[in-house]
Every structure is written in structure tokens, then in C-alpha cells.
Structure prediction request, 392 residues.
Amino acid sequence: MKVLKTILVLFFINLICFKAFAVEDSPYISVKGFGSSEIRSQGFAEAKNEAVYNAINDAYKAALLSYLPEDVLRVDFEKIIVLLKKDGKNLVHEFQVLGEKISANILETAVSARFSKKQIENLFSVNGIVIEKITLPEIMLLVSEKDIEDYDYYQWWKIDENPRFGITEKGLASEFESSGFKVHPPFIYSKRSDFRFESAPVPDKKDAINIGLEKNAGIVVVGKSHAEPGGNKIKGVDTVKVVLRLIVFNTGNGEEICTVSKDIIIKSENGIYKTREAFEKAGKDSGQEVINKINSYIRAKADIKNEIGIEVFGENFFPRFIAFKSRLINSEIIDGFKDKEISSKNSLSFVSYKGSSKELAEKIVQLSFDGFGISITDISEGKIKIELVSVD
Prediction:
């Protein structure tokens, strides 16, 4: 009896695992939607059709939004708004009415709808929305900070013991971390004696990138934040102003990604300048702007396609090359196919591909061809060599 119970338990566990895998591996995305309509003189049937139509559109919006990473929503929000206004019934694969209720003259209904993942991906692609999951770079914050009464700027990377973030940096870090970025904490920088401008309020570009590279940070945020009397008053109460200027660099190539400037004014209390709150607000307010610009930069870089040369040769070359070319273009793996040199025995062409030569070769070798096969004989940076061969 115990053996039978064990077998049944294992059976149900496997069944659950199989179902979970099947859902995860499904080519469709299933969502629920809600819709309502007014029952007018046209009658119940007309109202039901309208309510179901509205519910499908609601499910369509849920399907699109569930498919998008948060950074894509931020970067491409205007494009996504346009897609959300499209008619969902043109994309729904199938749907089922889950229930309906009439309250006064309002018909309310809910549906379960399935949408093709491939169709959704194509919709994003056609509208210039990149949805590939992108690894976010790690962040290094180097923002000098000086309060009203401070003699000099605080810079954690020049501290020999227990370096800590300034208040502005803490505000920035909280925004970055809430958006999924890893922010490196301060550390004792062993090369601080190599600085060329020891008294400079901010590290120069070279120093900043070197500090970032010390911890393999892909992005370094450099700047300074200082407080001063705000100059404005309300009912005799003074204000404090924090002036923040930031420059963001890609540590890999030294490219400047963006610059951000913020002037934050906060009302004081009991004659005490609320500089801590002003520094923190400056960091948080600028943080989201910097994040949006970094996300745009990352997405733009990810969408850049590489030009890869494809050298093709082999027996019965010309008809096989025509078939090979047609198959590769129709596969939609590549974007653009340009012939540079072609003869009766070989050819050299260039294609656009969002990835490396090795990655493209792995895609090409998975294609099937009628009456012949391919042998990829060499893969180098920016070039693939392919032999067209007979199939035994």
C-alpha cells in the first residue's frame, strides 16, 4: 500500500512539473480581460458582442504589457501607447467567455484569451521596439558633495578608512537599485595617490573610468553636488538650494552617455537649512533621468546590427547558391543581403546581423536545404566561410 501511495505521489509531482513546463514552453500567452457595454435599443446580442470585444482588447493590453521588461516600457513608452490602442481582436488566437452579469442596463463580462507570442514579438519588431533581455551594466557613483559650511568636497574614493557614500550618491543609488542596476559600494581605492589633480572637486574622465574599472563597473556616474542659500523666501522662511551636475561615461569605450543638471530648492525649518533633504532629493530626481538615458543608450547599442561577410563556394555552385541565398533571406535571421563578388564558383556577400559571426553561424547551420547541405569551414570575426555540399 505504501508503495502504491509513493507511486501515486511521484505521478502527480511529475504531472504538475509537466504542466508547468508545458505552459512555460507554450507558443501562446494566456491572459484574462474585462469588458462592459450598455444594453441599448439594439438589444442584448449587440451589447454582448461589444462587451466581449472590450474584454478582448483589455486582455490584449495585458498580454503586451506582461511581455515587456520595465526598462523597455520606460524607453519606448510612446511607441507602446500606440500599440495599446490597436484592435486586440485582430491578434487574438482564441478566447473563452468566463462569465457575464447584467446590472441595470450594463452588461459586464470577462474572457480568457490566448495570443501568439511570435505575433506579439513581430508586432514589437515592426514598430522598432527591442524586447530582448539585456544584461544591465554595473554602476559606479563618483559624485563629490559639499555642504554650505564645508571647506572642501567630500569624495569617498579619497578616504583611507571606511569610505561612505555622500547623501546625493545614496539618493542616486536607491533609484538605480530599484530599477534593477547593481551599484558598487565605496571601497578603499589603492591608486588614489596617482591622481593628477588631488584638489579637483571631481575626478577627471581618465581617473573616473579607472576607478570604475577597478570593480568592473560598466557605467561610471561622475559629478558634483553643492549646497548654497536658496535666495527665495516664503513668509520670511529661507530656502536652501542644491546644484547638481552629472556626466555619465561608458567605462568600456570612454563614450559620454549623457549629462544631467538639477537645481533643487527646499524650504528651511526653524532657521536650519534642510540640506540633507535637498541632497537626497537631488540624487533621486536626477537618478530616474539618468536611468532613462542609460536604458535608451543600452537599447540603441543592442539594436545595432553587425555587418558580416559570408563567403560561399562548392560543387554545382550557382543554382545551390541561389537556393541558399533565398533560404537565408526568407528565414528572417538576417537583415539585408548584399552581393559584393560572385562568379560561377564562389561568392562574397555581406549581411546585417545583431550578434557575432559565431552566433550567426549557429543559426545558419540549423537551416534545411533541398537537395544539398552546407559545411561551415571557417568562422572569424566578421566573416563566415560556407561550402555547399552534396547530401548522400
About this structure: Residues 75 and 296 are 6 Å apart (CA to CA). Residues 306-390 form a domain with the Alpha-Beta Plaits fold (CATH 3.30.70).
